[in-house]
Specification:
single chain; 268 residues; mainly alpha; binds fe (ii) ion
Length: 268
């Protein structure tokens, strides 16, 4: 499918509210944690960019993340057990939807002079937290725990990604560098984030017990995803910061206490 044709259905707001309410034990802390990430220094950094080329260190790492994500989604699909066969369309649609995003980003980088040749992208050394974030997804794909996957990748990471693109997409228009790569994620990641909740209840229709140990395991895993996402964004601009959250999604180590002021990345 062409990326200028959205593969994502319209989001049904009534359905979303019902899912949010049903899974408040997960959604409330997760939304609180992901919202905290949006107030961190990385987003100030983005808002203060004056030249699109300043975005290069971010785009290079994001390229790696974008190119790896569909591979991990494909791994999740490929390792699906017979018992989980009904999940196959969900995994494959997500993999398909993400498959060409890295190429859109590569073309955008070439168009705006962030790179001169695609070969430069193979020279990028990814940060520890870029690797950590990607490796978490690999771990989940190998583990084949559907609920862990859904709460961490869909409800957690996709929501964080949506927050990222909601800020970056309009910023790029401000810099005369707006692009479908950024725009498509504002819609797509919202869709991915919400639709994961639909498959949280087991196939026999039993809902989750929010008080159970299992619920706590799932919440901790989802919050781990938000922590690694936040750390990854900051590693892209030279800030070493791993945000941590309690079970209510409250940030326990504010950035000022950890790093002091952040430094600005220069144009290379
Ligand atoms: Fe994507
Ligand atoms: Fe996505």
């Amino acid at each position: 499918m062409q990326s200028n044709q959205s593969p994502y259905e319209t989001v049904d707001q009534a359905k979303i509210s019902a899912l949010r309410h049903q899974h408040a034990w997960l959604v409330d802390p997760l939304y609180k944690a992901s919202e905290a990430v949006t107030t961190m220094p990385f987003f100030n950094w983005v808002r203060n960019i004056e030249d699109v080329r300043e975005f290069k260190p971010v785009a290079e790492q994001l390229y790696y993340h974008s190119a790896t994500f569909p591979k991990v989604l494909g791994l999740m699909l490929g390792l699906t057990s017979l018992r989980e066969n009904p999940m196959m369309p969900f995994y494959s649609k997500h993999a398909f939807g993400e498959a060409d995003h890295h190429m859109l980003l590569r073309d955008w980088m070439l168009k705006h002079g962030l790179i001169e040749s695609p070969l430069e992208l193979s020279q990028v050394i990814t940060s520890v937290y870029t690797n950590s974030c990607v490796n978490l997804a690999y771990q989940l794909a190998v583990e084949q725990d559907r609920e862990k996957w859904l709460v961490t990748i869909n409800s957690g990471i996709e929501r964080c990604s949506n927050d990222f693109f909601k800020v970056v997409a309009p910023k790029m228009y401000e810099l005369d560098a707006g692009d479908i790569y950024f725009d498509i994620h504002v819609e797509a990641d919202e869709h991915h984030s919400i639709m994961g909740l639909e498959y949280l209840a087991s196939p026999d229709g039993l809902a989750f017990d929010p008080e159970s140990h299992r619920a706590k395991v799932l919440l901790r895993k989802a919050l781990e995803g938000v922590s690694l996402w936040g750390a990854m964004l900051h590693s892209w601009i030279g800030i070493n910061y791993l945000p941590l959250f309690d079970d209510k999604g409250q940030l326990t180590n504010p950035v000022d206490e950890v790093t002091g002021s952040h430094r600005r990345v220069k144009i290379h």
